[in-house]
Write a structure and sequence with these properties.
Strand order of the largest sheet: 2-10-9-8-5-3-4
Structural class: alpha/beta
Bound molecules: pyridoxal-5'-phosphate
CATH class of the largest domain: Alpha Beta
CATH topology of the largest domain: Aspartate Aminotransferase, domain 2
Radius of gyration: 21 Å
Number of domains: 2
Order of helices and strands: EHHEHEHEEEEEEEHHHHEEHEEH
CATH architecture of the largest domain: 3-Layer(aba) Sandwich
Shape: globular
Largest sheet: 7 strands, mixed
């Protein structure tokens, strides 16, 4: 087999090797069924067992209270950007958005199609390089929406945003879901595309408080009503069976590794090493404000676009893939989600040190 390299992709992203091996073993026959995981009917006993185990693991690992539903939907987190306001935001009401990056902006752009929106805070003034310390909410918002981790800009809310009690809080956790403990009970909805921390692309986890499910209009297209998916255990139509199966394997891997507190400690250690190196580097500099740094996406620059390009191509040659930063930030971005090994962070730091010694002025 070709040797695997260090994959810093922002998503789809690296998956645990043991998970990939188990999936490979079940491609031709899921357990002793004689039918591969990709070939099982979603209505059959074998897949239903996979589905139920995946939901149960999700509840256990995320400490999800009884009065929340776990849904596996399609259309990516981007579909939630419009499905949420379409179902929950009446035309004559307002929803508040905490705008900390391009993905939050996209969420607002969809919400304005359905009702009023209010920007409770934004870090647009400094190219989203920080998490605002304060927010100003509208008088009676239907909900407040935030993005817990800003994949492109390398910033992350270190805790819950300062939302007054009684306001339903909705979180786009696409790029840090289950990377640390999460208090679901403080949220009305938590949603995340799976392709960074949970599995492959093609499935979106939506954790939703019961009372919201029936709120949406029944005139919406059937597939766009949450009640459809809640009533049918995410199987109103054919679900992405393989993606759900893989999420289940990743959740088992998280559980085996000690759950979300252990995951949180590991992620803190991995990111901490990289930030510590950046702080003392004479060549590289982190782009996120110190109190807003992401543990998932570490963004950095040299301050010289040509040197950035030189670094990226040297890194690629040395087996470090996916380090080129998003065009709106430039420079580099190391995405180090749950499954990215600590050894890969150590190897990157060694490589950066070497590059620095050859290129620092
Ligand atoms: C924070 C965040 N939200 C939403 C999205 C969009 O997700 P999807 O591609 O699943 O629609 C992304 C994708 O990278 C993301 O990082």
């Amino acid at each position: 087999m070709t040797q695997r390299i260090w994959n810093f992709s922002a998503g789809p992203a690296v998956l645990p090797e043991s998970v990939l091996e188990e999936a490979r073993d079940n491609l031709l026959s899921l357990g002793t069924t004689g039918i591969g995981i990709l070939e099982h009917s979603h209505r059959g006993k074998a897949f239903l067992a996979v589905y139920e185990e995946t939901v149960a693991l999700c509840r256990e690992i995320g400490n999800i209270p009884e009065n929340y539903r776990v849904l596996f939907l399609q259309g990516g987190a981007s579909t939630q950007f419009f499905m949420i306001p379409m179902n929950l935001l009446p035309r004559d009401r307002t929803a508040d958005y905490l705008v900390t990056g391009a993905w939050s902006e996209k969420a607002v752009e969809e919400a304005v199609r359905f009702g009023g929106t209010h920007t409770a805070c934004t870090s647009h003034d400094k190219n989203f390089s920080y998490i605002p310390a304060t927010c100003t909410f509208s008088p009676n918002p239907v909900y407040a929406h935030y993005t817990s981790n800003n994949t492109i800009f390398g910033t992350q809310w270190s805790g819950l945003p300062p939302v007054p009690g009684g306001i339903d809080l909705i979180c786009d956790a696409s790029s840090d879901i289950f990377s640390r403990p999460i208090d679901v009970s403080k949220h009305a909805i938590v949603y995340a595309g799976a392709q960074k921390n949970l599995g492959p692309s093609g499935v979106t986890l939506v954790i939703m408080r019961d009372d919201l499910i029936e709120r949406g209009s029944k005139d919406l297209p059937t597939m766009l009503q949450y009640r459809t998916h809640a009533k049918n255990d995410s199987m109103y139509n054919t679900p992405p069976t393989f993606a759900i199966y893989l999420v289940g394997l990743v959740l088992k891997w998280i559980k085996k590794g000690g759950g979300l507190s252990a995951m949180g400690e590991l992620n803190q250690r991995k990111a901490g090493k990289l930030y510590a190196y950046l702080e003392q580097s004479r060549l590289f500099k982190g782009t996120a404000a110190a109190d807003s740094r992401s543990q998932m996406n570490v963004t950095f620059v040299t301050g010289n676009a040509d040197v950035d390009t030189k670094f990226c191509s040297a890194a690629t040659k040395a087996g470090f893939d996916g380090l080129k930063g998003h065009r709106s930030v430039g420079g580099m971005r190391a995405s180090i989600y749950n499954a990215f090994p600590e050894a890969g962070v150590d190897a990157l730091i060694d490589f950066m040190r070497m590059f620095e010694s050859e290129n620092a002025v």
